[in-house]
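re: that chain from earlier
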Amino acid sequence: MFQSDADPPSPDDVVDKLRELVSQNLLQQDVAAMHIRAMALMARLKALHRASNTATRIRKDATAEARQEMDQSHLGLQNLLYEKRHLEREIEKCRQFALEEFTRLAPEAARTEDVLSDEHQLMLNRLSFELAERQRLDLKRKELVQRKEELLKESKTKASTMDSVKTQIDQLIKSATDTRKKIEVFVPSIQTTDVATPG
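^ sequence. v structure.
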């Protein structure tokens, strides 16, 4: 039988020696010596029992660790299979959508009955159509980005003009306030002079 480093030695030898002690042949020997020998064999049997328990615990721990690793691997595999199925469904949806979009938007010459029945030619036409669409949309995106930049520039110019006008208005208000204060200094004296002369 295979015995690893973690396996305890077999107790069979100790049990055989204990049987010999109780056999008829040894009953005539010194009882004290037999008692000492029996205690030594019992101590050896207890040590073997402890070693057996230790080996069992080591095996259980190793088994639990291996089971945990296997469970983790299995869970990882299940996650990958789930993700694979999900991606396959998404790819199929995209293919269906792309085919529907192609048959709806592509030029008539690119989606004739002959093309739709030839899977290879259909794929080539779809790819060609998709490239043309991407180029068209990219050009449109560039135009929109350029228009956005122009609007931002125009907005900044208007904001700068508004700031300038606001500054000028603030200066006019300050100037008008200063002028009014100077006029108020002269107006009361003119009104006082006008009131004094009518008599």
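The two ends are 146 Å apart (CA to CA).
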